[in-house]
Amino acid sequence: MERRLEEYILSHIDAEPDLLRRIERETHVRMLRSGMISGHLQGRLLTMLTRMIRPERVLEVGTFVGYSALCFAEGLEDGGEVHTIEVDDELEDYIRSNFSQSEYGDRIKLFIGDALQIIPGLEDEGYGLAFIDADKESYWECFESILPKVKKGGFILADNTLWYGKVVEEVGSSDWATQGILKFNERVARDERVEKVILPIRDGITVIRKK
C-alpha cells in the first residue's frame, strides 16, 4: 500500500525536471549513501516552499550531490542566491558539474568545509530560508549557528527529523545520529524563539519560523 501511495503521489505532482532525474539516477548508481538525495517529492516541495517564501537568499547545510540546492535555485526569483555548504571535498567536482548543467546553476555559491566554521562568517539575518540536512549528531549546534543568520519571519527547514521512525523506538547508547535528532527535536519543541511543525513527508521535515 505504501509503495502504491508513493507512486500515486508522484504521478499527480509536477514532473521531476530531466536534469534532476538524471542526477538522482546517477547518484543511486555511484554513491553508497544514495538515500541522502532529496528526490522527486521532496525536491518539488523545496521548490514550492521557496516560491511561497520568496527569499532573496537561501542557506543550505549539506549539499551532497547538489539536488536540493538546484531545487532551491529553481524556486528563487531573479537575483536570488543559494549558499550551500558541503563538508566532503571529494564531492566538489561532481557537485560543480551538476550545477554547470543547470540553467539555475549561476544562482548557487558552493562552500566546501565545516559548516560550523563557515556559518559564523556569513552575514547576520541575511537569509530568508535555510535548510539543515547534514551531520545528525550536530543538528542542534548547526541550528543555533544558523538562527542568527535568518531574518525575522524567515524559515529553517530541518530534514530527517523522523529518522526512519527511530525517534519513537528505544535508542542504543552508541546510536549517536538518532540521539542527535532526538536532542534537536526536543530542544526545538521547547524553543520559544521559533514556531515549528513536523511534516511527515518522506523521512520528516520540520518547518521552523523565526519569530
Automatic annotation (TrEMBL):
Q: Name one GO biological process term.
A: methylation
| Stored SUPFAM superfamilies | S-adenosyl-L-methionine-dependent methyltransferases (SSF53335)
Query: Care to name a GO molecular-function term for this sequence?
Result: O-methyltransferase activity
Tell me which UniProt keywords the record has, alphabetically.
Methyltransferase, S-adenosyl-L-methionine, Transferase
What Enzyme Commission number does this protein have?
A: 2.1.1.-
Entry coiled-coil feature ranges: none
- Keyword Protease in the entry? The reply is no
InterPro entries in UniProt: Cation-dep_OMT, SAM-dependent_MTases_sf, SAM_O-MeTrfase
Q: Which PANTHER family match?
A: CAFFEOYL-COA O-METHYLTRANSFERASE 3-RELATED, O-METHYLTRANSFERASE-RELATED
Q: What is this protein called?
A: O-methyltransferase MdmC
From the UniProt record, report the name of the gene that encodes this protein.
mdmC
